[in-house]
Structures are given as structure tokens and as C-alpha cells.
Write a structure and sequence with these properties.
16 helices, four-stranded parallel beta sheet, alpha/beta, 39% helix, five-stranded parallel beta sheet
């Protein structure tokens, strides 16, 4: 087990001495290449925003730089080799920002947010950027018309994201869709869905910002990488806020996610804590809004579907024709490339948690699944094809015996608001969501084989 410190550097001339403890493994994080170009694609995203007439704030750029540190640490520091319990890492970040005093006032909130999201122990400190790079963002040219966008939405290529985008486009607002390209399968789904939406909404003026943050392995020397990526949403949200800060008006970043996934109540004791993702959990979303307020960023995050099941999102989509044409292009699977070892093309597996919730939500499902039929054979609970399904079945059975358990179970992933009305809504969406999956799995047989 080793503690880690990641120190952001703004170019070769940035040689500020940062004290490092004897038991900390130091990684210098090169944020600038050449004289003044931000590394890891960050300059490209600012250039692309400029082309869209979007000029973000310096504080939002700071947030994106912080997110790059978080994403790098999360994906390049192995939980297995670098923690005492094969999960909880100890990570310290030292981040160059435009206003250290402003950011230092938000440290407690940032640490609280990151600890909740990833299950690690984070420490964050801030220092001034070097003077030549104290200002990074170009200002809009005088006389130039302001940003054409009135809203921002995350666009992941998933089904919930697709529905959220269709609903947004039908609302008459002008949206900027924000995507993190990610792996090949995710990127392809985003491209296909976006092209189909452009085809169907020719008269609607919307656009897309894409970004792929890739941290080379050689940046983190002598450390194995990590594949759990619990911290990805910090990067996604930061990218959305970066775009939102430049649209010249108070903004809402739409984060579409059904209520069952947003709560993500563990199905069994093996999925406690950060082993279940907390990307859109109400506490995490609220924590982000508190952070934005502390930083003086005039925007907020919103999940408009927090009290809807995925099936309800599908049923109530504002344009079912477009949805039905596009739904097969969206990607929900947690690991669509896992079939490559069996020479199966990239596709939905059909039995992971997101796939099961997707299947339960669509009445006439055009999606191709590796496990196309769930009830034609008994599924082995000792293998991946049956494990998640059996966990769902046990959780659904337990809830059916005692529906009031929902009022307790929804607290397992994390704290919730004190508003009784919101708690009631969350408990109900959990019960309805589990009932949707229960209907899908009612005839499915599982046992250890």
C-alpha cells in the first residue's frame, strides 16, 4: 500500500516546490505541452467551444483541470496494489488554479464529494497558476453575437441520455450536447444516435461538444492502472459545467438518468459502498450544486427523471417515433466488448444490471443481446450470466414480502434529503423500478450448476 500525491505542472518552467511526505509516491502531472497548450486534449476542447461561440469562465477551466487530476488518479492508480484493503486508495492532489483563495474555501466540499463518489480518501490543495498562464480563456470579440445555446445536456449514447435529448429537443430550447468519447463502442453509439437525431431534427439548431481525455500509462510510472473508474462522472459533469459557464446566462446542466439507477440500491451485501456506482445519486448531485454555488458558477445540475423508472421514461418520451427509430443505436451495457474472447462482436450482453433494466423498460425491444433469451434455459448463478439475475430475483422477492423495506433500503447507497415528499417519491420509484425488472425475470430460472 502506498499513499499517492499528484502534482499538476504548468509547463517545464513551473518548478514550484511542493513538499512530499516520505510515504507518498509522487507523480508530476504535465498539464501543459509546449509553451502554453493545455495537455490531454484540454486545449482542443477550449478551441471547439470557441468555434461554437462558447467562452467559459476561468473558474470553470480550473474545474476541468481538477477533473483531469481526478480522472488520472482514478484510472491510473490500481486499487489492488496501492491500497490496504484492495479498494480504498489515499490520494492527494495539488492543482494549479486561477484563484487559490476561492478554491481553498471549497476544499471540504470537494473532498466530501470525491470520497462519496469513489470510496477513496482524498486530499486536495490548490496553488496559483504560473503568471504567463494566469488567464487561459479567450474573451468573446466585441460585437460578436452571444452563444446560441440556452441549455446543456450530457449525451452519453445510452438510452436515458437519448430520451433526455429527444425531450429537450422537443421543448424548443437550443441545446449543446456534451459527450466524453470514451471507448470505441461508446463513441460509436454517440455518433450513431447524434446522426439520427440530426436527421430527424433538421430545423432545430443544436450541436455537440465531444471530448476524450486519455492519460498515457507512462505518466504514472511503476504503477498498475485501474479499471473500476468510479470517478468518471466528476469529469463528465465538469465538462458540462465548462460548456454551461460560457453560454452567457444562468444554465442548467441536464443529467438524464432513471430513478432506479440513480439510487442504485445494492441488490445484495456484495455490492455495498462504492462497489455500486454513485454517478447520479441525489446526494452526489446536490453536493455538486453546493460546490457550484461556492465557486460562484451561475449554474446547476438537474436530473429531470429522478422519480421516473426507465420504463416510464420510454413510455412518456416526447417523440416516440424518433425514439423507436433510434433506440437500437443506443448503448446501455456495462461492458459491451466482453464477448470478444468468444469472437462475438460488440453488443449488449443482456444480463448485466444496465442491460436488465433496459430490457425491462422496452416492450418491443429491437436490441441484439448476446444472451437473447433469458428463459429458455436455467442460468448458472456461479457464472456472470446468472449472478446479476439471481441477485435481482432475491431482492425483488424480499421487497415483495415487505414493501416497506423500500423506505429503509433507499438509504443504503448514501444520505438523502430530509424532505418527506422526496423520500416518498424515491421509495416509490425504487419499488416501481424493481417491479419492472421483476416482470421481465418472472419466468427466468437460476441456480448454481
Amino acid at each position: 500500500m502506498r499513499r499517492h500525491v499528484i502534482i499538476g505542472r504548468f509547463g517545464t518552467k513551473d518548478n514550484v516546490v511542493v513538499p512530499v511526505a516520505r510515504d507518498e509516491h509522487e507523480t508530476l502531472f504535465p498539464l501543459v505541452i509546449g509553451e502554453n497548450s493545455l495537455n490531454f486534449g484540454l486545449s482542443d476542447v477550449l478551441s471547439n467551444l470557441k468555434k461554437l461561440k462558447v467562452f467559459p469562465s476561468e473558474v470553470a477551466v480550473d474545474l476541468m483541470i481538477l477533473a483531469a487530476h481526478v480522472y488520472a488518479a482514478d484510472t491510473r492508480i490500481s486499487r489492488t496494489t496501492e491500497s490496504q484493503d484492495t479498494w480504498t486508495r489515499e490520494i492527494r492532489l495539488v492543482v494549479p488554479v486561477s484563484d487559490p483563495n476561492l478554491w481553498s474555501g471549497a476544499v471540504k466540499q470537494i473532498v466530501r464529494l470525491l470520497n462519496f463518489l469513489t470510496g477513496d480518501r482524498w486530499s486536495v490543495g490548490f496553488r496559483s497558476r504560473p503568471k504567463p498562464l494566469a488567464k487561459i480563456v479567450e474573451k468573446a470579440t466585441k460585437g460578436l453575437l452571444g452563444s446560441p445555446f440556452t441549455g446543456v445536456s450530457l449525451f452519453s449514447g445510452g438510452l436515458d441520455s437519448l430520451i433526455g435529448t429527444i425531450d429537450a429537443l422537443e421543448s424548443g430550447e437550443t441545446y449543446l450536447l456534451v459527450s466524453h468519447a470514451g471507448d470505441g463502442a461508446t463513441s460509436k453509439a454517440q455518433d450513431l444516435c447524434y446522426a439520427k437525431l440530426k436527421e430527424n431534427y433538421k430545423k432545430v439548431d443544436f450541436n455537440r461538444l465531444r471530448f476524450w481525455l486519455n492519460i498515457p500509462n507512462e505518466v504514472f510510472k511503476e504503477i498498475k492502472s485501474e479499471d473500476t473508474t468510479r470517478g468518471r462522472s466528476f469529469l463528465f459533469f465538469s465538462l458540462g459545467v465548462l460548456a454551461g459557464s460560457g453560454i452567457n446566462q444562468p444554465f442548467t446542466l441536464q443529467v438524464p438518468e432513471n430513478g432506479l439507477i440513480a439510487l442504485n440500491v445494492p441488490l445484495d451485501t456484495l455490492r455495498l459502498g462504492s462497489l455500486s456506482t454513485r454517478t447520479t445519486h441525489p446526494f452526489y448531485m446536490n453536493s455538486w450544486n453546493e460546490l457550484l454555488e461556492q465557486l460562484g458558477i451561475n449554474g446547476k445540475l438537474d436530473n429531470p427523471y429522478w422519480n421516473k423508472t426507465k420504463g416510464e421514461m420510454v413510455a412518456n418520451c416526447a417523440n416516440k417515433k424518433v425514439l423507436n427509430e433510434t433506440i437500437k443505436l443506443s448503448l446501455s451495457c456495462s461492458s459491451p466488448t466482453k464477448g470478444r474472447w468468444h469472437k462475438i462482436t460488440t453488443q449488449h450482453c443482456g444480463y448485466c444490471l444496465p442491460c436488465l433494466i433496459r430490457r425491462a423498460s422496452i416492450k418491443k425491444d429491437p436490441t441484439t443481446y448476446t444472451l437473447q433469451n433469458l428463459d429458455t434455459q436455467t442460468l448458472d448463478t456461479l457464472h456472470s450470466e446468472g449472478q446479476q439475475i439471481r441477485s435481482f430475483q432475491l431482492a425483488i422477492k424480499r421487497l415483495a414480502k415487505n414493501p416497506d423495506l423500500a423506505n429503509i433500503l433507499i438509504y443504503k447507497p448514501g444520505p438523502l434529503p430530509h424532505d418527506p415528499k422526496i423520500i416518498s417519491e424515491l421509495a416509490n420509484v425504487y419499488k416501481r423500478g424493481m417491479a419492472e425488472v421483476g416482470k421481465l425475470l418472472s419466468k427466468v430460472k437460476t441456480k448454481p450448476q
